[in-house]
Design a protein that fits this description.
Helix 4 runs antiparallel to helix 7. This protein is 77% helix and 1% strand. A two-stranded antiparallel sheet has the order 1-2. It has one domain: Growth Hormone, Chain: A. The protein is built from 14 helices and two strands; from the N terminus they run H-H-H-H-H-H-H-E-H-H-H-H-H-H-H-E. By secondary structure, the chain is mainly alpha-helical.
Length: 425
């Protein structure tokens, strides 16, 4: 099969998962208005879906290594589409947790991992770039979903119909992604490409790490902790940036009118305009989230992942510090979102590419599947903590400060990590 086809499968699959995950912040306000739930209660639904997607990647990777990626993604796509569609029928918060969080999240985890493990096997000459292309859809999905969902909410007068129509589209896209996937034959090399010779002083014949050997290296767990830190901050922002902009710009509007925020009519045209403006931050973050996944792959193939890691994580610390004061101006909010989106998206190329570089392709599905569970744990903790702190303080200053500190700690982990030793065959 042509080696560009698995890349197409990666784009379709990751776009589907992007639709599932990365525009949830636009649903917070309409769900609160319709059902009267708190930000913590709604954020728990997003936290559950992130946790389930993250934890499912490990068994999905193991199954992909054993049975091939196609069947895993097709089955996962059907489950994902059904769960997202059923979310359109919810009447209680527990149904939100079940349909969106558990069922759609279960399917999303099956769809996400296999393309990332498969596509780079077809591109040993451009592994980081292939990884970036296979995950670029996560950013594309959120870029599409942010303004699309906001517009549909305004047209339909609520959030639930969005889940119905988008759920059908997601099922079709995910099944199509699965049909594009297949592992290359053993020993595959693209025409005209010769593997680089080992560096002088190293064994000329080496083998890949097994899964059991991988998890016994300290480098793997340092990567795990750094992935958790970057994901904690990124998912907190993605889950709440639209609501942050709405809250802060609404305060400015109320102050200009000389009234309390609660005195503003819920159907005021200015509030609808603010909702659309806040969705621009979601789209800005999503666009650069998608763009960075490809561009950072090109850069990492030239200068290595270590330098890319340190630069992106340090920039993320700076961007998080300016995010809260930027919330009351749409331009500054979008600017902060662009920087955060770029840095967050870069992780999803750098971490799998580094895992592949350190441990080899043989057990990549299992290795990266386990590594990605850190994203799931962070996805549960970050958005849920943000909702709790928001309910307690009525602003996002505390959540964003916590995220800043955690990313700063991750910089230390990335600074001290070194590649593991090669294993002689």
């Amino acid at each position: 099969m042509p080696r560009w086809l698995p890349l197409l499968g990666g784009v379709l699959g990751s776009t589907t998962v992007g639709l599932l995950l990365y525009a949830f912040s636009v649903f917070i306000k309409p769900l609160r208005a319709q059902f009267g739930w708190s930000a913590t209660e709604i954020s728990l639904g997003y936290a559950i879906v992130c946790l389930v997607v993250g934890l499912m990647t490990f068994p999905a990777g193991r199954l992909s290594d054993r049975f091939g990626p196609r069947i895993v993604v097709v089955i996962g796509g059907v489950i994902l589409g059904i769960g997202f569609f059923l979310t359109s029928t919810i009447t209680t918060k527990y149904q939100l947790y079940l349909y969106y969080g558990l069922i759609a999240g279960f399917g999303g985890g099956m769809v996400y991992l296999p393309p990332i493990a498969t596509a780079p096997k077809w591109w040993p000459d451009r592994r980081a770039l292939a990884t970036g292309l296979s995950v670029v859809g996560l950013g594309l999905g959120s870029f599409i979903m942010g303004p699309l969902a906001t517009k549909m909410i305004l047209v339909f007068g609520g959030a639930l119909p969005v889940f119905r129509y988008v759920g059908i589209a997601m099922l079709i896209m995910a099944v199509g992604a699965g049909l594009c996937l297949k592992d290359p034959p053993p020993g595959y090399k693209p025409a005209g490409w010769t593997p680089p010779a080992p560096k002088e002083g190293r064994s000329k014949v080496t083998r890949d790490y097994t899964f059991g050997e991988t998890i016994r290296t300290p480098q793997f767990w340092l990567l795990y902790l750094a992935y958790f830190g970057g994901s904690f901050a990124g998912l907190m922002v993605i889950g709440h940036i639209a609501n942050h902009g709405i809250l802060e710009m609404t305060k400015v509007l109320a102050a200009a009118k000389g009234v309390a925020v609660t005195a503003l009519p819920v159907d005021a045209p200015e509030l609808k305009a603010i909702s659309m403006q806040a969705s621009y931050a979601v789209s800005s973050l999503a666009a650069f989230n998608a763009l960075s996944r490809v561009i950072i792959g090109v850069i990492a193939d030239k200068i290595g992942t270590r330098v890319c890691f340190l630069v992106t994580f340090i920039l993320q610390v700076i961007a998080l510090l300016i995010l809260f004061p930027a919330g009351n101006q749409v331009f500054l909010l979008c600017l902060a979102a662009i920087i955060i989106g770029w840095n967050y998206g870069s992780m999803f190329t750098l971490f799998p590419a580094t895992c592949l570089q350190y441990y080899g392709p043989t057990a990549q599905g299992s290795n990266y599947g386990l590594l990605f569970t850190s994203w799931g744990l962070a996805g549960f903790a970050g958005p849920y903590m943000a909702g709790m702190l928001l309910d307690a303080t009525k602003t996002y200053s505390a959540p964003f400060l916590v995220a800043t500190v955690i990313v700063a700690i991750s910089v230390i982990f990335l600074f001290i990590i070194k590649p593991p030793k090669k294993i002689a065959a």
